[in-house]
Structure formats: structure tokens, C-alpha cells
Amino acid sequence: MTDRIWILGAPDPEMGAIERLLRQCGEQIIYATDESGRRVHPGNAYRCPVPEVPEGATVYAVECVDVLPEGWVRIDHHRPGDPGYGLPPEEFMSASSIGQVIAELARTGALRRAVQDEITHWMADNRGLLPAAEYNKMLRTQWFWTRQNMPGPNPYASDGTIARGVSWLYDGYAVAVRQDDLYFDHRVALIPPPLIYTAAADHCLAAAYRGECPGVDPDALMRWRVEQRAAHQGRSVEEVLADVERAREALMDAPVVRLSPEPWEPACGVHGRTGACWQSGGPDPSIRTDACYAMGDPLLAVDMRERVVPELPEAAAREGVCFLARLPGPDGRTKIVCQAGTPEQIEAFMRVWAPAQGLTDIYGDPARGFAGGYLAVEEAA
């Protein structure tokens, strides 16, 4: 055990991946809890009591606790001031919470515990003897060490630096790992693609599907996400894909709302405008739907507040359509979310539409493509 303690916030897919990695590294983990001792949820993760920890411990608060005691380290990307807040899609790996955890584990030397050094070094030295399929499968799922320098302009990067490259092996991301008396040459850990997909999906899913996250193929990302969601739900991949398609159709049939009255340039090329229309390539490109105006328009969003549609966020992110939805908050309040938006759409929601609707506790990150706010208690009731 170490003198480092990680306090984990509300559970979600990224937090689950973070916890598995920390446990592989032998780190101490506790959960942020509410006053009744139950693990926090997204609605109260930043209102939880400050946990008691041993004196002198290095403490990391991962997406939880509002005001940190002096000396604690925040791992987060949700709120202004967080290390990853506001960082663009091209920096998703370092900006995401799991990327920040990876960097810290590399700086402390703990990351080595997640990798079987001797086995992976042998595989690197003898990769020509391995069946190509077996070797490639290993690279797609596991951590991997290499003796080469870090990719990019700084081959002797500081410990914890994350960079994309290592082109001779795979076009992914690597992190510089701390050296100690056991190692006298540079060590680089190649980050497994599942963790790269986790980081991209959590930090900026819609942008990742638009191809704005370097090294993340949108089609590969969708295949991975559907497989993960199917396994989590105990269903087949085909069933999940069918839900995504039904959600896409629901988006096409829904009305739109204007997020701001400011001037705008419509985006439907089929109807005498510029850009790509939602209907292009469809059965009848001449038929206009309201959704085609939301496609690429920085001031419109599809209104899904009156419908509950499975896999709606996935379909909207994949199609690049900003939408509004009504969700029950875990604290009893009702919230309106704006997701899968461009920075312009999210800014319009936060700055104009949400205040005009009387929403409270408005939050969001234009760079990540999401925002939300809560209905007044009377209306929510």
C-alpha cells in the first residue's frame, strides 16, 4: 500500500475504468459519500463531506468534493478551474480525468504495477516470432512498454507527459514513466486503445464522432462503445444498434428550438442553402425536416424534452445533432440538458436560452459539447 489516497466520485464508465486502473497499480481507493454514508451520485458529488484521511497522505479527489483542503490534488474536467476544463478535443487525452490519472500514476512510478514488465519486454524483443494476430490483439487491449523515446518534439519528456505517436508500433498515445534504480534508460508506456476511447468518449463524445480527436477513428469508437454498452446491458450488439437507429429517426422527426435570437446562416444545401443537409443521401432528399436546419446551425437544437428515447445521446453525438432533453436529477430536481453541441450551441444555451427559461444552477463546458440547468422547484414538482 502507498501513502497516496484516491477519492472517487460518482460511478460512470470512465470512473469504472479509473478504479480498475488504480487497483491494478495497488493504489488506495475510497469512495466519496454523502452524509448518510452512501456513495455520491452526479447530483451531490461536489456537496459531499470532506472525507477523513491519514495525516501526511497525498490525496487525489477525482470528480468530487467542492473545496479541497490545502495540498489535495484535483482530478477533474467538469467545472471552471478544473485541470481539464475548457480544453479542446485535440487535447482530450490529457484533459480527461482518466488521462490525468494516467499522468499522475506515471509520475509517481505506480503505473509499472499495471504492466508485466518481463513478459511485455520479451514480446517486444521477439515480436517477429509471434503470430501477427496475437501481437496486434495484445496491443489493442493491454499496456505495453517500449524503450524508445517519447514521440513528438520532446523525446525526453517529463514524467507523466502524454503524447501521440509511436508510429512504428501503433498510432496511439504514450506516457513518459518515472525511472528509478531498476531502470537506466527511458521508458515509455503505450496507453491501451480502450482507455483512449474512454477518454475521448467522456471528454467530448460528439467531437470525437466528428473526427476532432486525433488518433480516434469515429467508426472504431462507435463499434467499441456499442460493444461496451451491449455487454453492460446484457443485450446483443444488434439490439443496441437498433436502438441507436430508432433514436436517429426520432431526432429527424422532432421539432427544433432557437437557442439565441442572434443572426445565423442556415446550413441546408438541398434547400438552396450552404453545407450538408440531414436528408442528403436519404430516400428523398427533397423532403425537408426541421432537423436539417439544426445540422451545423450554431443557434438551433432539436427539442427532445417531451420524449424518452433509448440511446438518444449516442445517436445525436454520432449524427452531430445538438439536442435538448428533460431528465430527472438524482437529487429530486428536474434538469434540462443540452448535449452533442458545438461550442457555439453550448454557449448560446448557457448564455441566452437557459436563463430565459428560468433555469438555475446552469453548468456546462462549450469545449466538451454539453450543458444543463435545473427547473425551478415549483415547476419541477
Q: Can you put this structure into words, describing what you see?
A:
- The protein folds into three domains: 4-108; 112-195, no CATH class; 247-380, no CATH class.
- It is an alpha/beta fold.
- The chain contains twelve helices and 14 strands.
- Helix 8 packs across helix 10 (312-319).
- Helix content is 34%, strand content 16%.
- A six-stranded mixed sheet has the order 9-10-11-12-14-13. A four-stranded parallel sheet has the order 2-1-3-4.
Major beta sheet, strand line-up = 9-10-11-12-14-13
| Largest sheet composition | 6 strands, mixed
Low-confidence stretches are 264-296
When the domains are counted, the total is: 3
Helix content: 25-40%
Distance between the termini: 48 Å
Instruction: Using the alpha-carbon principal axes, give the shape.
Output: globular
Number of E-type strands: 14
SSE-based structural type: alpha/beta
Percent of sequence in beta strands: 15-25%
Q: Which series of helices and strands comes N to C?
A: EHEEEHHHHEEEEHHHEHEHEEHEEH
Taking all Cα atoms into account, the compactness measure Rg is 22 Å
State mean pLDDT (0 to 100 scale). 82
| Total of helices | 12
